[in-house]
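Entry 14. Ran structure prediction on the chain below.
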Amino acid sequence: MRRGIISVVVVLIIVSLFGCTASPRFGSRDRAPAAPSATEYRGRAPVLTIEGVASYYAHDFHGRRTANGEIYDMYAMTAAHKSFPFDTVIRVSNLSNDKSIIVRINDRGPFVEGRVIDLSLGAAREVDMIESGTTQVRLEVLEWGNN
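Output, structure tokens:
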């Protein structure tokens, strides 16, 4: 009888220890990979080019998990796209002022009809679209992600 109680206690201890471990889904993606470098992609021909309306997202999502599991940093050079694979690298050019930035897809969106991409606040600042909130852009896929 005593042996059975000890076995149950040992099993409960083991289950409680392993039941409290972190989810493996988020463990490796908490820290975002380094931002894509403009010099790394200089001169690279785009794989795909799309034009449409871009928007940006910032404060309401800062510090929350993105769709790929990493923590959203509104100052990073990242973006959300509805279907491009995660870690796809894109050059985004503001068609009204010819400013461009290279971003990495790490989230899903935008969820507003007619928009092709949601930029992080940092990326939106680089292409000077904060005042307008949305702008016409050209997306040039430079490298497909592997997810």
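Residues 23 and 69 are 11 Å apart (CA to CA). Will compare against last week's run tomorrow.
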